[in-house]
Amino acid sequence: MKKNLHSLLITITLLFCVQAFSTPVISAVSVSNITPTSARINFSVNAQNSTTYAFVQINTTPTMSGSYPPNGPFNGTTPVASFQDVTNLIPNTLYYYAIDAYDASSQAAVTVSGTFTTGGTVPSTTNAVVSNITSTSAKIDFEVNTFGIQSSIVVDYGLSPTFFYSYNWVANTFTTMPTPFSFNFVELTPNTTYYYSVGSYSPTLTGNRILGSFTTSVLSNSDHEQKLNFILYPNPATDYFTIEMENEVQSVEIYSLQGQKVMASASKSINVSDLSSGIYLIRIEDQNHAVATQKLIIE
What residues are paired with 201 via a beta bridge? Predict the structure, then answer.
């Protein structure tokens, strides 16, 4: 009888020790509520009768770095459901996560890890229209919907349909519906075809690009209202010509009759010895942005 009682006491003691010192258990792990920038990691913790805390880590690589504030405390011997909301994520990106749990004796549960991918709809650009085309400028209007994701809106243009030399940032914003934007092309060459690309992108989502082209008008004396009076001399010129006008010069542009800009200056005395003989158009803008054009003959 004493032997049986002694065996029973040993068994109870062993069961108590096993129960008291068993490591926590993590179970029922899942990921829900996934959006372009957030998600919820669900899990349950069985503390195995020792006060336990759970820690969630997340990163874009399998190597974890830091953790969210601890979940808990968890107690008892049955699984207790919990979750961790993770935010400020990058759209359309694969994330790795890990869940650890430690009890009061620093015994650790088996780490549970997994992955999920954030959502996101690519930005959409529509209704691109070019208007107000002159010999040196134009305007493009278009609409962009970034579907709630912070995105850069850009316009590229150049002289080739496969190479754009000018990158122009229009805005960095997010929209939830088609929103109008515009961009002004300036300092263009008259009678020239320009190719453009307009669209938007986020760090991980590149939207569609609208491609198109337009041709600037031919420069002529009637392109601009003659808002200022000036005299060119000598005209015809050989090596130099001088501009005589009341205000200071803002810019001087010399164009061939084919509309190609061949020289630019900000001086009233200009050396044209490198230009071929022929007829040119001189476009002058003063400090008040008044503009006028005049023909110049170079001999």
Answer: 152, 206
Express each pLDDT in 144-202 by its tens digit: 999 988 899 999 999 888 877 788 999 999 899 999 999 999 988 888 899 999 999 98
pLDDT digits (tens, 9 = 90+) for 65-112: 778 999 999 999 999 999 999 999 988 889 999 999 999 888 888 999
Q: What is the 3-state secondary structure (H, E, C) of 252-293?
A: EEEEECCCCEEEEECCCEEECCCCCCEEEEEEEEECCCCEEE
Whether the Cβ atoms of residue 270 and residue 231 lie closer than 8 Å to each other? no
- 29 φ, ψ (degrees, to nearest 5): -85, 135
* Closest CA relative to residue 295, chosen from 208, 225, 237: 237
Other CB atoms within a 10 A radius of the CB of residue 64 amount to 17
Contact 157, 135 (CB under 8 A): no
